Amino acid sequence: MSPVLAAAFALLASAATTPPAAETVVRPGESLAQLAARTLGSEGAGPELLAFNHLDGAPAAGTRVLVPGPERAKAVAAIGSARSAVGQAPTGSARTEAEARLAEAESLLARARYAEAAAQADGAWKLLADAHEERSHFAVAVEPDGRTHVAVKAGVPVRVEAQGRTRAVRAGETLTVIRGEPPGTPQAESQGSQKSEPPVLLSPEPGLKLALEPAPGGLGPVRFAWKPVPDATGYVLELAGPRSQSIRTAQPVVTVPGLPAGKYRWTVRAVQGDGTLGPASTRGVQLVPGRIKLEVKETPWQ
Amino acid sequence: MALCLPLFVCVPACRRDAKAPPAPTPKQSVRATLTQVSGSVSVKRAAGDEWQAAVSGTALYDDDKLRTERGSSAELRFPSGTVVVVSEDTLLGIAETRAAPGRPQADVTVLRGAVDATLDRPANQSLTVGTPAATVRAGREIVFQ
């Protein structure tokens, strides 16, 4: 693990262990580094603890010191996010400026100026996010034993935390977390595609223009069907078009009550036994408003 | 006439109750709103013990639970504009205030099943999804109001 990532994890871990604003008493023989590790989760946070308490040197045993609360946790989390974004940003002016803001945020944190540190870190994050503004799209699935699968379809990475460890999962990657364990290494979504065949799509037919009646959410209902894939534990249907969404289902058929009119690409992947997604099959379909049905009832008035 | 008037006033209120689970009192902040419901979707209020059928437009509050049956789905929209599609056979909690020790509060806690989230403006939106194994954070870490 790189020193930068290790520092990020240490900071994030310290955020998780930071108690609410409180006092603590320095123990006999306890060094400043030990005190910082005990209260802030990091041996290197001694100077910050001194700054927070307006102390010039290491406090003696028996001294009561204040421990920062949620404001610090927020600053630490913001710095972690900014560091993750900077690490993944392409070289350029936005990254250079974000790096400068991140360094300033870390400096402010070390001086216990938490609100300013959080604002600087958030500014760095936003700078990169604005430069690469893209819809964020991800899915989370939980198995009966609590095992969690995270799949990022598009946009900026999402952060997966477990047992004090954080992993960034980028677009096109999946990550599985077993209950009680830290997150493993993200996998490219296509890895695992060797085991099963792509689903055979049945309906709607390729390139079909479907004339549908108005329904909640647009036009509908729209029925998507495909042949079952051997050994699949489920399927993921992804719709890309005027409305994009991903639907997880156990059956090889999904009926969507309504979709806005327009052209869609629909993609189906099987969920394999190990939770990974198999190869995809994709088709296009166009939804158009159908004829308006007029019903004229006989009136009793002559 | 004296009897008719209260009855007349009661009708709209009674109809509303039959369509959507009643909101908790005293009034809380709406955490999310059901914008689409397909099939059998039900809500259990934080202070209630009964699952009640949910309809589009149902507001969800802290510690409410949402359940979709097999073949059903739902769509949630958060005040930030974040959209979460809830797949079939899913059980989730809304903004659970009694998070496990050391775990941050999540906007949505998936206890079983699957959700699909979309943040159109991740620079200005955030979403935290909790599960029994992990916490998934997307978008901006701090959203300044």
Task: Characterise the protein shown here.
The complex is a heterodimer of chains A (302) and B (145). Chain A has helices at residues 3-17, 32-40, 46-52, 70-88, 93-110, 114-131, and strands at 22-25, 64-67, 136-142, 148-154, 158-162, 165-169, 173-177, 187-188, 201-203, 208-215, 218-220, 222-226, 234-240, 245-249, 253-256, 262-271, 277-289. Chain A is an alpha+beta fold and 302 residues long. Among the domains of chain A are: 137-188, no CATH class; 201-289, Immunoglobulins (Immunoglobulin-like, Sandwich). In chain A, strands 11-10-17-16-13-14 form a six-stranded mixed sheet, with no helix packed on it. In chain A, strands 3-4-7-8 form a four-stranded antiparallel sheet, with no helix packed on it. Chain A has a three-stranded antiparallel sheet with strand order 9-12-15, with no helix packed on it. In chain A, helix 4 packs antiparallel against helix 5 (93-110). The longest helix of chain A has 19 residues, at 70-88. The N and C termini of chain A lie far apart (87 Å). With 145 residues, chain B is mainly β. Chain B has one domain. In chain B, 11% of the residues lie in helices and 38% in strands. Chain B has one helix and eleven strands, in the order H-E-E-E-E-E-E-E-E-E-E-E. In chain B, strands 1, 2, 3, 4, 5, 6, 7, 8, 9, 10 and 11 form an eleven-stranded mixed sheet that branches. The relative contact order of chain B is 0.14. Residues 1-18 of chain B have low confidence and may be disordered. The chains are: A alpha+beta (302), B mainly beta (145). At the A-B interface, helix 4, helix 6, strand 3, strand 5 and strand 14 of A face strand 9 and strand 11 of B. Strand 5 (158-162) of chain A pairs antiparallel with strand 11 of chain B.
